[in-house]
Amino acid sequence: MFKKIWRKAKYFMTIAGTEQAEEDGEEGMSLSPVLGENLHSLRQRLGKSSDIIMRRIILNLERKVEAAVVYVEGLADEKVINDHILSPLLKVKGTGKKDSVKILEYLADEVITVGGVRRTGNIDRLVSLVLAGDTLFLLDGSARALLLSTRGWEKRALQEPDTEIIIKGPRIGFVETLRVNTALLRREIGHPDLTLESLEVGAKTKTEVCIAYLQGLTDQRLVDEVKRRIRRINTDAILAAGFLEEFIEDAPLSPFATVTYTERPDVAAAKILEGRVAIFTDGTPVVNTVPALFIESFQSPDDYTFRFYYSTIIRWIRYLSFALSILSPAIYVSLATFHQELLPTTLLISMAAATEGTPLPTVLEAVGLGLVFELLREAGIRLPRPIGQAVSIVGALVIGEAVVSAGLISAPTVIVVALTAISSFVAPVQVGVAALLRLGLTVIAGLLGAFGIVLALLVVLVHLASLRSFGVPFLSPVAPLVPRDLKDVVVRAPLWAMLTRPKFIGRDPQRQSFDLRPAPPGITEQKKDSREKEGDQG
């Protein structure tokens, strides 16, 4: 009881702390009206790096006024700086104003032609945004400065992600630039309720994190919880979406990820339209989405572009492949070691002949070959693509043939491990989890046989049923059972039959109208009469 009260109190104290931090966001060292002092303070903060450009200029107004432009070379677009900031400033001749503050406002409103203009006097805020690619404009006599949006570093071309290749559908993926990614999402969801909120994470990296959701459709409590978990992160660096994922997930010690990810804008848009929240991290092409469900691992964008009959069959093949990837070695070990009476006589004789003379027990054969397979898979991933493919294919063939010929490992074990390897690639999201479960189940099968496999599977199932992802049951809609949501789990129902969103996600359950099933055009009364007349004449 007291523990529960303490957790509630801690939660509200965290909320209050984040709100207070927001209110105090502009506190800190402020600018001075003297330009030289401001540049000295900025130089102390930014250091003596050669890519920090501080350009002093003289403005010929009613009187000569000294100003300065500060930006980071490579992060800011120098063409925009030259054409829309420096050139207009050096050409202006008069403002009709003598006060420096009013001159600054006039320059911001009528001279500088950059789209995004912000005003602030907080040095910490200025330094942070200059290092993010904005340009700082300082005017002598003013204790406030202009932050001009000039971000324009080199960007990678848009292309299809290698990890989520599909046959039908858009061939475009996210890149490492945050605003390019949010623009791709805007292109998918052209609705004004699409809301993007930015946060800053990482004391050293100052990484920009953006959460995206549909206002009114997404549960506001989910949005608040996502922001609370992100704001509580107090670390030096957030360099990728994987860093952020480990700080905000519900079960950090579980092998199953309760925060999923995607590199495709259409997938991120589809999840947002169900009521989820997407989390963009600047500098990485991966977008996290929450809450996550276990069933998502077996879904693909192609499921919704092919005919639903074929998509249903393919989805069941994924389920079967995942089961084979974790159970095949364990079942083989248990049958070969403890339950030979379950095998047909002919098969048992063949296996006995194949294993005769091998020095290792079956469980060590399966575990050893499984580790060799993981070694080859990792080598194929880390090496350059042409070399990696050759290593993985040639290595598997050579090693498999060599160990069988040398009599170190039996041929049935090689066949079982090969089947396991092929099956594990069908559901790539669960490759890591499948490797852990496969190893554990194989060892338990070697010790306890089928009883150990059943016992271990029950433990895994109980663990899965206990997981939550931002308050949503990880195994839903199977546990707890939601019959209406099984239309996208047991089968892939036709799109016109998917009338509702998942029960535990989003606020508005209805996705579309109830009368969208296609039908041939009706025969009008006039056509009926003409056909009846033709029949009478015939």
Content-based structural category = alpha+beta
Please report the total strand number as a whole number: 12
Instruction: Indicate the radius of gyration in whole angstroms.
Output: 31 Å
Beta-strand share of residues: 5-15%
| Biggest sheet strand line-up | 1-2-4-5-3
| Annotation field: number of helices | 17
Q: What's the helical proportion of residues?
A: 40-55%
State the end-to-end distance. 88 Å
The gross shape turns out to be elongated
Q: What integer is the average pLDDT?
A: 85
Uncertain regions spanning at least 5 consecutive residues: 9-26
State the domain count. 3
Q: What series of H and E elements makes up the topology? A: HHEEHHEHEEHEEHHEHEEHHHHHHHEEH
Question: Biggest sheet: strands, sense, closure?
Answer: 5 strands, antiparallel
Q: How is this structure best described in words?
A:
The N and C termini lie far apart (88 Å). The protein has 3 domains: 35-148, no CATH class; 178-304, no CATH class; 308-466, no CATH class. Helix content is 47%, strand content 12%. The strands form 3 sheets. Strands 1-2-4-5-3 form a 5-stranded antiparallel β-sheet, with helices on both faces. The protein has a 5-stranded antiparallel β-sheet with strand order 6-7-9-10-8, sandwiched between helices. By secondary structure, it is an alpha+beta fold.
